[in-house]
Amino acid sequence: MKIPTFIAFEVTDVETGYPYAIAWSLPDGQYKSVLVKPEDDWLIDFEMGQYNPDAPPLQDLLDKGESVLDILKEWDQDFEDGELFCQDPVLAQYCLDLMFEAYNKECDYDVISEYDCYDNIDNMDLDDQRRWIMDTEGLSAANCEDAVKAMIFLYARTGEDEQI
């Protein structure tokens, strides 16, 4: 079974923040996750927003985070078909645009709701199944890595006949 590319972000502030953690799936069902080293331009508005209390300290992001440019290069290899499925397309598009704009590039990926992966399954049923998976696996919806794991589990659990 080939897994679609699922992606999830954690941001410092939903309104004016920047992504500090990203996770995404690979076609074989594995996933990757990284901390993001913020771009200098992103830090200008840093003190204006509400900093997510779950976010690592800024110094940890600066010391341990991957550069946005390195992440974009890795995505060139990992995102084969250019379609990215996520739970929050608006947030994902915002984060992608912010990252690509840092290098004067345009995002060429199509951001699609995770629900579009499935035929003949009601969105409420998918949400119930996701909650069950997160509860039984001890996953947190606020953690991007856990969100991607849940999307992979959900996709595998629904059976290929129900998916596009």
Structure description:
The chain is α/β, with parallel strands linked by helices. It has helices spanning 58-64, 68-78, 89-101, 123-137, 144-158; strands spanning 5-11, 19-25, 31-35, 83-86, 110-113. It has a single domain, classed as Ribonuclease H-like superfamily/Ribonuclease H (Nucleotidyltransferase, domain 5), CATH 3.30.420. It has five helices and five strands; from the N terminus they run E-E-E-H-H-E-H-E-H-H. A hairpin with a 7-residue loop joins strand 1 and strand 2 (19-25). It is globular.
Q: What's the helix count?
A: 5
How would the global form be characterised? globular
The major beta sheet can be summarized as: 5 strands, mixed
Name of the CATH first level: Alpha Beta
CATH architecture grouping: 2-Layer Sandwich
* Strand order in space, largest sheet: 3-2-1-4-5
Low-confidence stretches: none
Number of strands: 5
CATH homologous superfamily title: Ribonuclease H-like superfamily/Ribonuclease H
Strand content: 15-25%
Give the tally of structural domains: 1
Helix-strand makeup class: alpha/beta
In percent, how helical is the residue content? 25-40%
Mean pLDDT: 90
Question: Any descriptors?
Answer:
164 residues; five-stranded mixed beta sheet; alpha/beta; globular; Nucleotidyltransferase, domain 5
Short description:
The protein is an alpha/beta fold.
List the helices and strands and how they pair.
Blueprint: E1 5-11, E2 19-25, E3 31-35, H1 58-64, H2 68-78, E4 83-86, H3 89-101, E5 110-113, H4 123-137, H5 144-158
